[in-house]
């Protein structure tokens, strides 16, 4: 029973250490704060022409 508990504890610890930084990195991407700047850049590029 103790080895199973240690494996579960190790798995939870590793997932926490790996997933929390990824969530902090992905939050601004999924927040769509950058969408306005992207649309502005796209509009300028379209109106600039060749």
From TrEMBL:
UniProt KW Transmembrane helix keyword: yes
UniProt keyword terms in alphabetical order: Membrane, Transmembrane, Transmembrane helix
Protein name: Uncharacterized protein
Domain of life of the organism encoding this protein: Bacteria
Transmembrane segments: 25-48
Keyword Membrane: yes
């Amino acid at each position: 029973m103790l080895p199973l508990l240690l494996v579960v504890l190790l798995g939870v610890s590793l997932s926490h250490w790996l997933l929390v930084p990824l969530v902090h990195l992905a939050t601004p991407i999924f927040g769509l704060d950058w969408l306005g700047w992207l649309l502005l850049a796209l509009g300028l590029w379209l109106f600039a022409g060749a």
